[in-house]
Amino acid sequence: MKVLTEEQVLRYRENGYLFPIPALNPSEAVSGLANLERVEAKLGAPLTSAERKYRHASYTYLPWVDALVRHPRILDVIEDIIGPDILVFTATFFIKESATKTFAAWHQDATYFGLQPYEHVTAWVALSDASKQAGCMDVLSFKGAQRQMRHTAAGLENSINAAGQVIVDSLDDSNPISMELSAGELSLHHTLCPHRSGPNRSPHRRVGLGISYIPPHVRTTGPTRMHASLVRGADNCGNFELLPSPQEEMSADALAVHAMVHARYREYHVEQQNRHAKEFANVA
């Protein structure tokens, strides 16, 4: 079902972002937070303190996250952007605990994702309010001129991103747009849209799930064959190894799949860091 207007789609294509968009109803957002807290109790720690791997590709070991990345309302929005055949390349929980220094420096998702053509779109789904005080995402319009910028994997302290990556090209960040969201809303950002986020200075956790959606004709640029989940339509391209849905929360089988997917993703991520560093080594 068509959700976005033609004007909204045009704005997304011109700027590289769009928000706020209704996604979950209030009870679904509350349920998502409750499910997350139950999982954290099983792990014995918040996701922000547990092994980092549990933040990534949780749709492989948590049926409720698998259902979330397949939510009809979300997929209707994504279909308006990339078409009726939809894969999930990955999904990551981005959580900032109250009154913490966790942040993200200016970066583009495309840098280490290694996907071509540049048709990857992230739906950032808020499970709690993501205000400016809570450290919501800031974005910069690419004004219809998409380009890959030069980054370095700086390992920045308190970075919410594992590589602590940051754009090192000249960047006019004098007029950022704060994508504030209420619980249950989502934002979209294109893989080449520069974005960042500040610390959480609010009295509550900022919890969001960033879901990376791609059409099946998108390919990886490296030699490692990657996994994806078909969530709508058909995959007639075979560019990815398709994943099953988990049948039981944190079962041995589901955790084994998750471990495999995460290990492959980390291997590919390192490949892409090295590729980017070599590609831009001689760029002034």
What this model shows, in words?
This protein is of the alpha+beta class and 284 residues long. It has one domain (6-279): q2cbj1_9rhob like domain (Jelly Rolls). Helices cover 27% and strands 24% of the residues. It contains six helices and 15 strands. It has helices at 6-15, 26-43, 63-69, 72-82, 110-113, 252-279, and strands spanning 17-22, 86-96, 104-107, 115-116, 121-126, 137-139, 151-153, 165-167, 177-179, 185-190, 195-197, 206-214, 219-220, 227-232, 241-242. It has a seven-stranded mixed beta sheet. A four-stranded antiparallel beta sheet has the order 3-11-6-9, with no helix packed on it. The longest helix is centred in the last third of the chain and has 28 residues, at 252-279. It is globular, with a radius of gyration of 18 Å. The relative contact order is 0.22. The model has no long low-confidence stretch (mean pLDDT 96).
